[in-house]
Amino acid sequence: MSVERIATYIDGFDKALGGGVPKGHVVLVCGTPGTMKTSLTFSILYNNVKNNGSKGLFIALEEGHDSLKGAMEDLGMKNIDELELYVLDVAKIRMEHKEEELTKNWIEILTKYIEQRVRESNFDMVAIDSLAALYSLAQLTNPRRDLFHFFGFLRGLGATTFLISEIPMGSDRLVAYQEDFLSDGILYLRQYEVGETDVQLRIRCVKMRRTDHERGYFTLMKSDEHFMVTSAITE
Ligand SMILES: Nc1ncnc2c1ncn2[C@@H]1O[C@H](COP(=O)(O)OP(=O)(O)OP(=O)(O)O)[C@@H](O)[C@H]1O
Ligand SMILES: [Mg+2]
């Protein structure tokens, strides 16, 4: 049975993914600092909302709404406020929740919030930036159990979910706990040194359930309007 997919609108990469990300998947977007995890994920939501009437919820735990929006506008994503792309930041979450609720585990708060918003507003796509920020707010008592339930909850939503995951420089681990096994897909971003002086941004699909995808690295570039990939040729 073929699955419905959502396009990433990264030129050349959808083909490598066999058309895109299967709808309803929980996908990790992993990368070291400055590898455009936020920009790339935001652009996936932005382009789907803009081009096919999807609705997106971007939960920004790393930076405020205005700063994020400014950066995305600099990258050519215009009129964000006029689209069905809702950016929620920590300040807004705090405003919408009573004091006593904020002493609770943030995973519980977000779970409740996301469930309610996806039900009421029919969001097709949800992004959380980032898992590290969520963990620092969440005080996980039993990370493996808590994350197992959280991923199960996300998968049950029906929306396609992108979780941004930060990899420290020099680490050979993609994630903090077992998110790589819990997720349906993993996109991996890294900076790759070419020769003595150049550094390229590269992307690869590490896993994507229900998909016959390519596994190799692509060079990731940004033009005025959108992201694109070309095949990375290693010397
Ligand atoms: N206007 C721009 N045009 C092209 N590239 C840009 C522009 N502004 C920033 N960048 C590049 O994008 C990078 C930041 O992108 P982004 O914030 O999406 O990365 P990130 O992986 O989410 O970073 P972090 O680890 O800080 O969360 C910058 O370090 C810079 O290299
Ligand atoms: Mg970021």
Beta content comes to 25-35%
Q: What quaternary form is this?
A: single chain
SS-based class: alpha/beta
Bound molecules: adenosine-5'-triphosphate, magnesium ion
Report on this model:
- The chain is of the alpha/beta class and 235 residues long.
- It has a single domain, classed as Rossmann fold, CATH 3.40.50.300.
- It is 35% helix and 27% strand.
- The protein contains nine helices and eleven strands.
- The strands form two sheets. A nine-stranded mixed β-sheet has the order 5-4-6-7-3-8-9-10-11, sandwiched between helices. Strands 1-2 form a two-stranded antiparallel sheet.
- A hairpin with a 3-residue loop joins strand 8 (185-194) and strand 9.
- It is globular and about 55 Å long.
- The N and C termini lie far apart (40 Å).
- 40% of the residues are buried.
- Bound molecules: adenosine-5'-triphosphate (ATP) and magnesium ion (MG).
Highlighted features:
235 residues, alpha/beta, Rossmann fold, nine-stranded mixed sheet, 11 strands, 27% strand, globular, binds adenosine-5'-triphosphate, binds magnesium ion
Q: Secondary-structure map with pairings?
A:
Layout: E1 5-6, H1 13-16, E2 21-22, E3 26-31, H2 37-52, E4 56-60, H3 65-74, E5 85-89, H4 90-96, H5 99-102, H6 106-121, E6 125-129, H7 131-138, H8 143-156, E7 160-166, H9 179-182, E8 185-194, E9 198-208, E10 218-222, E11 227-231
Parallel strand pairs: 3-7, 3-8, 4-5, 4-6, 6-7
Antiparallel strand pairs: 1-2, 8-9, 9-10, 10-11
Adenosine-5'-triphosphate binds next to helix 2.
